[in-house]
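Example 9 (inverse folding). The structure is encoded as follows.
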């Protein structure tokens, strides 16, 4: 299993943390996407662009971008720009969102979020592939790398979006923030059964400050997740090194 890190929310911290996390040995760097939560956060696509420019090895991803909050053409252009800068290291994770305040801030209908996710995800994928949608096309660069698209969906074995992630997209992102290992493992088993080639599964938002988080990382690895992504409260070197050891250490 690979181990990833959610980048810090402050834009002024991005360069130093991205470079230090790569030096320490994290496999990937990720961003989340929130609006209107009482504190300014770096835009997720801007943050990924910064990380792409100052790193060489680590993979980059979003876990997840709330697709309904952005025009799909703009989102496709942003993602393609980051993918080109990252040289093929980008995975674009998209989700519907679940917080009404985010939608209020963006003046988007919260009740339409799943319909918008379907439309936006399909449109972004088509545009990045070079297709024309509704008379619009990116005019993509010939050397634009492929951008794998993952879908973020709740850990429900009967969930429609878990099935779509398996059958129509390149991977599934499940949130580990609740710490409900049984639900995650059950959803993983369903996802693997549905995905034609087994797919790729990421357990995102492991809260590294919570008691038992290191044990949770170990269990996610044993369960067969391809990647676990940690969220930290502090990003100093000692905290980064302790977090990186969560997957290496024997418990």
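The amino acid assigned to each position is listed next.
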């Amino acid at each position: 299993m690979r181990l990833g890190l959610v980048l810090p929310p402050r834009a002024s911290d991005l360069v130093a943390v991205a470079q230090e996390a790569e030096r320490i040995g994290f496999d990937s760097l990720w961003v989340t996407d929130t609006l209107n939560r009482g504190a300014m956060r770096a835009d997720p696509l801007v943050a990924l662009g910064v990380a792409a420019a100052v790193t060489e090895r680590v993979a980059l991803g979003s876990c997840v971008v709330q697709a309904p909050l952005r025009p799909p053409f703009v989102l496709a252009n942003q993602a393609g720009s980051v993918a080109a800068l990252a040289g093929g290291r980008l995975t674009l994770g998209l989700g519907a969102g679940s917080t009404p305040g985010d939608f209020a801030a963006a003046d988007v209908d919260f009740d339409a979020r799943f319909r918008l996710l379907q439309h936006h995800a399909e449109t972004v994928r088509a545009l990045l592939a070079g297709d024309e949608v509704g008379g619009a096309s990116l005019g993509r660069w010939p050397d634009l790398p492929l951008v794998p698209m993952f879908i973020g969906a709740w850990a429900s074995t009967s969930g429609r979006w878990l099935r779509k992630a398996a059958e129509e997209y390149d991977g599934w992102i499940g949130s580990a923030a609740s710490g409900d290992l049984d639900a995650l493992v059950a959803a993983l088993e369903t996802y693997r059964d549905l995905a034609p080639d087994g797919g790729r599964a990421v357990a995102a938002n492991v809260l590294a400050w919570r008691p038992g988080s290191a044990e949770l990382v170990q269990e996610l690895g044993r369960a067969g997740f391809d990647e676990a992504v940690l969220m930290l409260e502090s990003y100093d070197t000692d905290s980064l090194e302790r977090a990186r050891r969560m997957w290496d250490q024997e418990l």
